[in-house]
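Give me the fold.
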Amino acid sequence: MAIAAVPLGIVRAALDVLRDLSEGKTPRSGSTQLREKPATQPAMGRAEALLRAACEFLLEGRDEAGRAASTSEPLTLEQRALLRLTCARAADATKAAVQIVYNAGGATVDYESSPLQQCFRGVHAAAQHFQIHRAQQGSNSPSALALGAARAYYPIVDR
């Protein structure tokens, strides 16, 4: 589950970079600073909301798993699937949040040396980790388990 925190940190870094960039960047095509463009503030708000929602869902899953683990009973298949679902959903939300920030940053983010370019690549690389990849949302999800679906491609191994 700890790997799910990595893309969350990358989103926070991307938001910080955009905030700094918007303070000083004036696009060549105009005289309005990036922070004063009509789309910049709403974009930052949407990305912040995605980040906070992903954090909250992840923490809720962690807390539920912690409560279940504090008993002498092992986690049920549904509880473990829900925990993986929270990780996978956080990964998806972070990719969406960084995409929003990346789009708001303008053309300077296209350069390899741009910190937003690095955040973009980093969040996508982190979200590919098998424990938090979108594949975990498939037949391993609680709703799929309730329907009697088979275990996911990456099965939860009983230990």
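The helical segments are 5-24, 40-69, 77-104, 115-127, 142-146.
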